[in-house]
Amino acid sequence: MLRVLGRGQTTVCDGTTRREVLRVGGLSLFGSMTLPRLLRAKEQDPARVARAQSIILVNLFGGPSHIDMFDMKPDAPAEIRGEYKPIPTSLPGLHICEHMPRLAKWMHKGTLIRSVTHGYNSHNPYALLTGFTEGNDRENYYAKRTDHPGIAAVCQYLGLGPRDLPCSVFLPALPGYSQGLRRAGPYGGYLGRQYDPLFTDCAPKFDREFDQNKSFYEANAPQGEPRLPTVDALPDLTIDRFRSRTRMLDEVDRQLAGFERSREFATLDHFQSKAIELLTSSRARHAFDLASEPEEVRKLYGKSLFGTSLLVARKLVEAGVTFVGMTTESRGSGHRDTHEKNFSLMKDFNLPNLDEISAGLLEDLEQRGLLETTLVVIMGEMGRAPRVNPKAGRDHWPQCGFALFFGAGVKEGFIHGSSDRIGAHVADHPVTPGDLIATMYHLLGVDSQMSVLDLTGRPIPIAHGGMPITEILA
After folding, report:
1. pLDDT of residue 19
2. Looking at the 3D structure of the chain, how many domains does it have?
3. What values do phi and psi take at 158, rounded to 5?
4. Where residue 94 sits, what CATH number does that domain have?
5. Domain that holds residue 69
6. How far is CA 393 from each of CA 65, 80, 335, rounded to the nearest angstrom?
């Protein structure tokens, strides 16, 4: 007996039963009636057709310090400017932190936004992945059925991406995994669990043993690779239930009428497709086979967990995956929540690691001709406070931050917005998380102003009032 956990909803959003959906056009459980959704979502203006086939979003978890990275204030007082020196970049007039020399050589190829601002003071990637900024930190520690869906889930809802691979993947694990949390942001929310992305898992290794609580602000580099989850990790599925695609379809067809009446029917196609993707897709297995990559390519990304994750991300978009998220969260270093020892932690790991993995990704994508069709976004959930605190740290500061865009559809060598003289507040061209999300939708060819229905039937805009940032579009 095949058993798949689900919710009580047995109709799609327009009231049609799932069995009727399956009957229309000979659709099987390996598809869903997403073409009308996609046609409605695709923008009709030829000037705004899809420029990006895929997105790689690098979430610098914890809140990266804009003042110490891409918006330095060398003329500010010492308690503001910090310890680092700016260096020139390939974009004339732009200087960034001295500890990112490789990335400095790429700045003529991307757009730097220095005016990201909002009021959502939280490490949850909820605002970053949905565009919604009216939540609160404690409420969004754990993902809920009533949450707004993340951009990756909406892409899957619209049927973007290949049929034999997940539409969206998050690396190296789900946000919050190292803290025992399931942070809100990437999930399907009120669209349903069937639109959750695929999450890999990981088991990072370190050069030495340490106490994470005592070494939270120390540079302990996580190494290792993201791994495909086992089928048993998927809810209520075992490998013997998916011995072959034919046997699976025969069983589903035989029991279709019973499933239609079941409260568990609503997410059948989600878990079925997840298991079959992992078991039968050679492209999925190949994307996680880093041993097949030449040594010179491996060296571009380095050995850190985040470098290997971005190498997998490149292989996934090369295979056709629409959205790949990579979060710099792990036991050890990677987080940007630098309330203490901001400068030593960033200098000893965070900045050199970001420099290595981002420049490696951009070089690899360009060499393969993928940068023209892949949008790379580098950002965090907030910036850091302008004033250095007594523990040599910087505290939370959502009032001002940055975002970096490279690749498909964005201007090259462009700076959008600015902050005041100490990097505390946006001086011009403010950008919200909703604007960033709307821009990503726009570049994927999706109408950023479309709505989806929440659990009460209310239409909710997918970008929550955000608008594409037309100034940065090529």
Report:
1. 32
2. 1
3. -80, -5
4. 3.40.720
5. 18-230+282-472
6. 10, 11, 13
